[in-house]
C-alpha cells in the first residue's frame, strides 16, 4: 500500500515537473476581500482572463502561462508572506505584480536578490522608472509623477494653454499615495504660476464636509481628486451638496472607475478622471467573451464587468506581461520558458507599437509602450475620461503627455538619492 | 502518565519559586528553544522562517507588551501600533543620524522613545478608566501616525513618507538571510519574554495586578497608582517599540506610517483576548492564532483547489467562526485552555 502510494507520488511529481518545464509562472498576490476587493478582483480577473485567452491559443510560442494567487487583503504584512510563498512555488516565479504600494515597498529590496522582476502598473514608486537604480522594478505605462504632469498639461490646455493666476486644489488621501505627486505639482505650480492649495483627507475619507467647505471658500478653478476607495464617491457626493461643478473635478486613475461613480448616482455625472486606457470595446475583449467566458473559464463572476475600468487595466497588464515574455523568448530561445532575469530583459526591451496592438486586437486601448534601461515606464501618456451617467467616455482624442523633462529630472534626483543611501552604483543591466 | 510530577519535591525556596515548577515543562521549553535556535535555521525553508516564524515572533512580542499593560495592569489600550511606529521610526532615525550606532542600541533607544511617548499618553490613565481610557489611547494612535505623515524630519524628508530600513549588522556580521534574522529575532524575543515573566512575578508585577484588580484598594495598601500605572505604560510601550523596530527592520524591510494603522492595534488586542489576558504564554498563543491561522487556512483552501474568490471569502468566514468557537469554549483564552488541558493530563489516565 505504502509502496503504491509512493510510486504514484513519484509519478505525479515527475509529471508535474515536466509540466512546469514548459510553462512560465507568474506570481499574483491578489486581494479579493476587504475594502479594496472591487479593484483587486477586476484587475487580477483581467490578467487571468488574458492569460487564459493566450493559453487557449497555445501559449506564448507554445509555452503556457501559469499563475498562482495568494490573498493579501491589501495588507503589506500578508503581502510579504504571499510573495515569499509564491516565489519558490511551481519551480520559481518569474514575475510579480502586487497592485499595492505598501506591498511593493515591502518586497522592493527582496526582488533584486531573488531576481524576480516586479511591475507596478500605474502606481508608486515613481522614481523606479530609472532602470539603472531599480533594474527589477517596472512602473509600466505611466507613474504617478507622469500622471500629475499630464493632469497639469490637460488643465492648461483646457484653459487656453496657460494656468497663470489660476487656483488648483489638490484634495488628497493623506498617505504615501496621496503625497506622491506633490513634488511634481509644486514644481509645476512654480513654473507655470498657478496657486496650489493642498487639502488632505484623513483615510478612509468617509466624511469630507470640512474639506469641501474649505474648497468653497478658496473658490478654485479646478480640483484634483487624489483619492482611493470610499473617499472618491464621498468626495463626489459632497461636491454636489456644496454646489461645486463635477466637471471641474479631475480624479486620479484610482478615482476613475465604475466603483467610484456608480455609488455616487447622479452626482457623478460630468465628473472627469485620468486613465491609461481608452474606455470602449476592443477585439481582444470580444475574444475574451467568446473564447474564455463562453467556455466557462472566465474569472469574473459578473460578466457585465468585462471591459470595466479595472478589468481593462488587468487585461492591459496581461498583454504587457505576455509581450515581455515574447520579447525575452526572441532573445533567449523561442518556445522555451524564460527565467526571471531573462524576463527582466524582456520587460526592459518592450516595444508595443500600433501594429503590434492591432495584432493583439487592442488598438488605442493603451498607449504605445517602448521601454529601455533609462525609462522603465515606457510611455507616460494618459487620457482623460468623463462619466456620462452610465459609462466612461474618453474626452481627449489623443494621448496626453506632460512635462517629461521635469519628471525625468525629478526621477533622477530621487533615485540617485536612493542609490546613495543603499550604496548602489547606478548601471544598466545586460 | 507522561505528565506526572510525582517525585518532584521542592526542597529549597529557589526550586519552589522557579518559573516552571514542573520538570516536564522545563524540559519541553528548553527543548523547544534548542530546536528553534539550533535546528530550525538549518532545516526550515526560507519561506517558513521569513514569512511565518519571524512575524509570529514579532507579533508575540507586541502582544506581550500589550498584555503587560492590559492584562497585568488593567489599562485598556488601543495605541499599540502607535507605540510600535514610534519604536520603528525612532530606531530608523537613530541609525540614520548617528553613523556607527550599533543596531541593538538603536532598537533599545527606539524602545525608550516609545516608552517616553507611552508615559506621556499614559497620564490620562490617572484620571480615567476602562473604556474611557481606550478612547484616550486611541488618540495616541491618530496623533502618532499624523505626526509621522506631517513632520518630514521624522521620515528623513522622503517625499512619500515610506523609507527603507537599514541593514542589520552587529559587530560587522550582517543579519541579511532569513536564517540569521530569525535567530536574532528569536534571541531578542526570548530574552524579553524571560524578562517579562520575571517582572510580573516580582513586586512590580504584583503591584500592577493589585491596581488592575482594584486600584482604590491598592492605594490603601500603599501602592502608588501614578508610579505603577506609568511604569506599566513605559514597560509596555518599550516592548511594543522594540517589536515595531523588529517589524520594520527584520520583517518588512520598510518603515512606513500606514503599516502601523489602527487595524494593527486591534489585531494585537485580539491576540491577547484570544490568547489569554494576563498571561505570557497567552501572548504567544494569541499571536500564533491570529498570524498563522489565516495563512494556514489560505493554503488549505488553495490546496483543495477552490476558486480564489471563494477561497478568500471562505478563509475569513472560517477564521471568524473559529474565533467565536474558542471564545465560547473558553472565554479566558487559549492559555487557560492549555492550563485546563495540563490539569487533566496530570491526572490522566486515572482521573478521580
Annotate the secondary structure layout.
The complex is a heterodimer of chains A (430) and B (352).
Chain A: H1 2-21, E1 23-30, H2 37-56, E2 64-71, H3 76-87, H4 101-107, H5 110-114, E3 118-119, E4 137-138, H6 144-158, E5 167-173, H7 176-179, H8 182-192, E6 195-201, H9 209-218, E7 222-226, H10 230-241, E8 249-251, H11 258-261, E9 272-275, H12 283-293, H13 309-332, H14 340-348, E10 351-352, H15 354-360, E11 369-370, E12 381-387, E13 392-394, E14 400-401, H16 404-422
Parallel strand pairs in A: 1-2, 3-4, 5-6, 5-7, 7-8, 8-9
Antiparallel strand pairs in A: 9-12, 10-11, 12-13, 12-14
Chain B: H1 13-16, H2 23-43, H3 46-72, H4 80-97, H5 103-122, H6 130-150, E1 163-164, E2 169-170, E3 173-174, H7 178-201, H8 203-213, H9 215-220, H10 225-252, E4 254-255, H11 262-275, H12 280-303, H13 308-329, H14 334-347
Antiparallel strand pairs in B: 1-4, 2-3
Helix pairs in contact in B: 2-7, 3-7, 3-10, 3-11, 3-12, 4-5, 4-6, 4-10, 5-10, 7-8, 7-10, 8-10, 11-12, 12-13
